[in-house]
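Researcher: Sequence recovery benchmark, item below. Answer with residues only.
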């Protein structure tokens, strides 16, 4: 196998269409979106890269940290984060700690 870098995902799709590459790796949401433009393509279920988001709290702010942790746990448990993902229409993204 030989790795070939591209500047953009559409450039990678062009190489895929032309048969110059066999696979394209990119962030999952982008692949899901762009795969619709390439008949017969599919995005594999597994992932090779995960991007986590975090929230920072100033050192020594234990009450604030507790509040943020509780808020995030509640937002995950109640489906608030999943609803936000669905509302903006992002595909290929999942809430951390939740099954696919």
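Model:
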């Amino acid at each position: 196998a030989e790795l070939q870098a591209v500047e953009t995902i559409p450039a990678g799709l062009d190489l895929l269409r032309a048969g110059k590459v066999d696979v394209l790796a990119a962030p999952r949401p982008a692949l899901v979106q762009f795969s619709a433009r390439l008949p017969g393509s599919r995005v594999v279920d597994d992932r090779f890269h995960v991007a986590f988001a975090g929230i920072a709290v100033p050192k020594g702010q234990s009450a604030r940290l507790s509040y943020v942790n509780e808020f995030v746990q509640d937002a995950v448990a109640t489906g608030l984060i999943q609803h936000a993902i669905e509302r903006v229409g992002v595909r290929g993204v999942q809430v951390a700690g939740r099954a696919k």
